Amino acid sequence: MAIIVVILNDSQLHTPMYILLINLSLTDIGNTSDILPKVLNTLLTQIKTVHLVECVTQMYIFVCLTLTEVLILSAMAYDRYVAICHPLHYFIFMSLRHTVAFAVASWTIGFLDPIGHAVLISKLSFCKSHLIDHFFCDVTPLLKLSCSDTFKIEILTYVVGTIIDIPAFLLTFVSYVFIVSSILKIQSSEGRQKAFSTCTSHLTCVSLFYVTLISLYMRPTSSLSLKNNKFFALIYVVLIPMLNPVIYTLKNHDVKEALKKLMNIAVFLRAH
Question: Domain 2-271 is of which CATH architecture?
Answer without folding.
Answer: Up-down Bundle (1.20)
